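Q: For a teaching handout, I want to show students what a protein-ligand complex looks like in token form. Below are the inputs, and the small molecule is adenosine-5'-diphosphate. Please produce the holo structure.
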Amino acid sequence: MDAATLATALDKARSFAATQHRLLIGGRWLEAQSGRTFDSYNPATREKLATVAAADEADADLAVRAARAALDGPLATQKPSDRAKLLWRLADLVEAHADELAVLETLDNGKPLSESRNFDIPHAIEVIRYNAGWCTKLSGETIALSGPGNWHAYTIREPVGVVAQIVPWNSPLAMAATKIAPALAAGCAVILKPAEQTPLTALRLAHLALEAGLPEGAFNLLTGIGEEAGAALTEHPGVDKVTFTGSTEVGRAIIRAAAGNFKRLTLELGGKTPVIVLPDADLDKAAMGAARSIFTNAGQICNAGSRLYAHAKIFDGLVERVAEYADGITLGSGLDPATRMGPVVSQEQQQRIQGYVESGLEQGAKRITKPRAIDQKGYFVQPTVLTDTTASMRVVREEIFGPVLCAMRFDESELTQIAAQANDSDYGLGAVVWTNDLSAAHHLVRKLKAGTVRVNGGGLDPALPFGGFKQSGWGRENGRAGIEAYTEIKSVAMAF
Ligand code: ADP
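A: Here is the structure, written as tokens, with adenosine-5'-diphosphate included.
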């Protein structure tokens, strides 16, 4: 973004942030019934950015009623092609406001503009367009029956109903788009609850959804605190499905809250992605890939490659390169074009990450990245590489959600044992393999217990299912599986 574009976008983003932010319920902007608000801060400066309505149970109830009214009203008769047009219009509007949205994301979350403008916002646009294409392609099937009797059978896919969608703060707009687009494409009515740390791009998105002409009540936005607004939605008997991205701990609370009326659940939870580097790998690419995997977005990515397993033959050279990369990362405000890593989102996260590094050092890990002076004003954390880490340490077992890499060496060339080390985790979101040996790659792909396995690169795509094995979650987002998760299958049997 050149200086003039940045200045204009900054102006727009700041004036939007300064407006009075309310809840979008049934197509109208309403204050929280309690009148309560909370503030959102710029993590690079600790300055207050915005004051936002704090929804609670009463607002959640209103939003659920508005969503139900939309389902029984305009959505019931809406043609798939009309839904597709609305989503295309929304994607066009997001694209038209991409610079402003990128700056807003950077102000609220802290990530470098190069990430928000080149990844988050384009990804949000792609996801909306991809799902717009599904509106007209979702259908049931005619079933060839196996048993006796003269009857005909087919299935219909119906929208699951009112969907509460709770998103985290690490990629706020991309996450919001990943949630709302398939749900709206399937004909559901949604209530989006952004994270309290980063509500601004979701608010801007809600304005754009109104401008795009989405039917009243099809898209509702509740800003608020997780334990209040989020919990109220997950407990509400009028909500048919909850989709959630966030911590495994909150995921567990949501499973309990959803039990009352057996809400359908899609949960994208924590991760502790292993990155395996075999001795034959292209080491330049593997080092760069391993570094980017853990240091992008300051490691605040559920699929960040936080455990590195490298063969003893190449371990020292590889880890040295990753540490050099880490030491060379320029930390600073996300608005500064020189910045490669912004602050983490909050003081709580900053302290949590630093606590993990200290616990690793206390348990015998060695820090090989150089100590450096850190700007004390923003919530900055030094990119860190730890060696001498072992399978039982907290830094290796628990999700840190920060720029901290634990590097471990293996000696054996038995792939099953390497996979077993990588699989020694409660999580199973992702795994990465670096090798040029096709047979070893196929072998590891089969052995690794992870929802996504990447070999020598590859990323996130709206068409590729994403989700976790084990405690990394339930279900998949993206792709056909992602949109089908917003439908119920109705089987129809009819005698001749
Ligand atoms: P993190 O720990 O990374 O902040 P969380 O899992 O706490 O992530 O938060 C992700 C999202 O879940 C946020 O929108 C947050 O407000 C929401 N949330 C937090 N606690 C609850 C809860 N008990 N019920 C529902 N949503 C919650």
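A: Two things your students might notice: Residues 165 and 192 are 5 Å apart (CA to CA). The radius of gyration is 23 Å.
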